[in-house]
Design the sequence.
């Protein structure tokens, strides 16, 4: 294929996608030989489109320097060419994305369900078991975006709250209003084991209710150019007071492998405070919140452009955030209706 034909074919790929960011179109350059894109709207063109979106927008290349992204393209190209349906191509794309070992790189099906490219190990939270605990604690059993309540069996001295979504529907005024129910509690348990969705700014607002002192929480860097290592300088992010009052009594923060993306950012914001203790398992170790770009047939791909670093400037990607108190949890526990992390949190508040 001539280079001029390749450029024309590549533009057809871009326009065949439902939504492609303006930055992607401006920064894209013609791929060097031997890349062949196939016919517009073909399965192969979708494979290249996903590869190129990651190439142009993923921030984690600065950490995953051992991954040769060009070689990854070549390695899986034949399988993409052999795919006869989107379902077959989906498996190829997930395998390709999995080479970067970042749980935030994922596909979203037309029904909104996430299909991850890489499994970050056992998640220490189970919805069914969690609902059983809520029932025993006389709390609502349906999982909503966030909820905070005092626990009646502790004479309301201990509060339990969780955050499952910090997305666009998050409302800081409603959040602050809900947290007034735990203002008089002597201890608080905050559950972030299910938090992966949301916006960084919402995490920065929400943490303000629990800040005693302004503290450095993490560093962040953003992909800012067409080169895979084109990243902004590290920018400091601080936990800052917000709202008319702050809860500064002991807080036990529950985390695990299901805590990722914005969940890890909120974890770092809360962990900067001396009155907060992390309980559970190491977090997912993802690069940061992901942007959503659209493919064909209602599918989309999620690509994080941000990389988050601990205050010591070590990356969260691939390492995660370690708990202060590790609690072992197994599938057998969940099958028996036991949540060791919730049980340990209740033990801690009574010590």
Sequence:
């Amino acid at each position: 294929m001539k280079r001029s034909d390749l450029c024309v074919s590549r533009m057809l790929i871009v326009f065949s996608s439902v939504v492609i960011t303006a930055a992607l179109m401006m920064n894209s350059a013609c791929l060097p030989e031997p890349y062949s894109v196939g016919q517009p709207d073909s399965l192969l063109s979708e494979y290249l489109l996903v590869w190129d979106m990651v190439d142009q927008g993923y921030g984690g290349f600065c950490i995953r320097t051992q991954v040769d992204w060009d070689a990854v393209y070549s390695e899986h190209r034949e399988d993409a060419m052999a795919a006869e349906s989107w379902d077959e191509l989906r498996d190829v794309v997930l395998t390709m994305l999995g080479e970067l070992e970042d749980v935030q790189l994922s596909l979203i099906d037309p029904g909104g369900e996430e299909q991850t490219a890489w499994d970050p190990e056992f998640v220490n939270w189970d919805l069914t078991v969690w609902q059983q605990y809520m029932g025993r604690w006389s709390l609502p059993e349906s999982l909503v975006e966030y909820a905070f309540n005092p626990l009646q069996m502790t004479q309301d001295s201990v509060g339990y709250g969780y955050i499952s979504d910090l997305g666009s529907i998050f409302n800081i005024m409603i959040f602050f209003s809900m947290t007034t129910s735990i203002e008089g509690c002597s201890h608080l348990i905050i559950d972030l084991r299910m938090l992966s969705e949301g916006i960084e700014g919402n995490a920065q607002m929400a943490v303000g209710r629990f800040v005693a002192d302004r503290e450095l929480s993490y560093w962040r860097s953003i992909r800012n150019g067409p080169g895979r290592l084109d990243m902004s300088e590290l920018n400091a992010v601080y936990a800052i007071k917000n709202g008319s009052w702050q809860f500064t009594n002991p807080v036990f923060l529950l985390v695990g492998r299901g805590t990722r993306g914005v969940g890890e950012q909120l974890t770092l914001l809360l962990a900067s405070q001396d009155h907060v203790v992390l309980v559970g398992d190491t977090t997912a170790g993802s690069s940061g919140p992901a942007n959503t770009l659209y493919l064909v047939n209602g599918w989309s791909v999620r690509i994080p452009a941000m990389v988050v670093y601990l205050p010591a400037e070590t990356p969260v990607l691939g390492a995660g955030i370690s708990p202060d108190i590790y609690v072992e949890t197994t599938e057998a526990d969940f099958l028996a209706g036991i949540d060791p992390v919730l049980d340990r949190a209740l033990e801690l508040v009574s010590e």
